[in-house]
Specification:
This protein has about 190 residues and is of the alpha/beta class. It has a single domain (about 30-185), classed as Rossmann fold, CATH 3.40.50.150. Helix content is about 20%, strand content about 30%. The strands form two sheets. Strands 6-5-4-7-8-10-9 form a seven-stranded mixed β-sheet, covered by helices on one side. Bound molecules: S-adenosylmethionine. The site of S-adenosylmethionine has 24 residues, from strand 3, helix 2 and strand 5.
Length: about 190
């Protein structure tokens, strides 16, 4: 499946796509506490924040509630880019970068905080090797962690985890009762 070629359906509580007659959730609003905690971690030191994937803008709204200098958001889906741009229109510290994060990464800066939360991302495999070049010394990074053990998909070393209890409705991507929020400081 080529994710950016799929048209998305937007509801109050979720974004979905239908593929091979099956519905998949791209983002759901039950993740609100996870988005809040992820935003809080990457904004602990303030400064310049990079967010990869706008989705429903839940984490973006939380990041905006912290005291930061700049907020750069990379988004690649043609149905979501206009929503991100509209959301950013009245926010002077936000830059929307259109495209796939892996294609645009060499045009970026370095950051005090980074939150990676993509879907259908064929370049996920490059995240661990790309991450350190995007971070300032002391910077804090987290990423969507869809596994429930204390390891991580990306094999990034020296990661600690904050356990967050959750009770998600049945869905196609995450059905555990706790989330392990990865914390990696550079
Ligand atoms: C799960 S949603 C992000 C949810 C977001 N954190 C929130 O709070 O609503 C994933 C987002 O990543 C975007 N995305 C997927 N692959 C991407 C890529 N390679 N580069 C940039 N954005 C990508 C999707 O279009 C979608 O907007």
């Amino acid at each position: 499946m080529q994710y950016i070629s799929q048209s998305l359906t937007f509801a109050e509580d979720k974004i979905t796509l239908t593929y091979a007659e099956e519905e998949f959730e791209v983002m759901m609003n039950w993740e609100d506490p996870l988005m809040s905690a992820s935003a809080a971690y990457v904004c602990e030191g303030g400064g310049d924040i990079l967010e990869i994937g706008f989705g429903m803008g839940i984490s973006a709204n939380y990041i905006q509630q912290h005291t930061i200098n700049s907020h750069t958001i990379i988004e690649n889906h043609p149905d979501i880019i206009p929503k991100a741009q509209a959301w950013a229109a009245d926010k002077s510290n936000v830059t929307i970068v259109e495209g796939d994060w892996y294609s645009v990464k060499d045009t970026l800066s370095t950051y005090d905080g980074l939150f990676m939360d993509t879907f259908g991302d064929q370049n996920m495999k490059h995240f661990s090797s790309s991450l350190s070049s995007l971070m300032k010394v002391g910077g804090k990074a987290t990423w969507w962690n869809s596994i429930s053990g204390s390891n991580n998909y990306y094999d990034i070393p020296d990661v600690t985890y904050e356990v967050i209890d959750i009770n998600p409705p049945s869905n196609t991507y995450f059905n555990y009762n706790h989330y392990l929020l990865p914390k990696k400081q550079f």
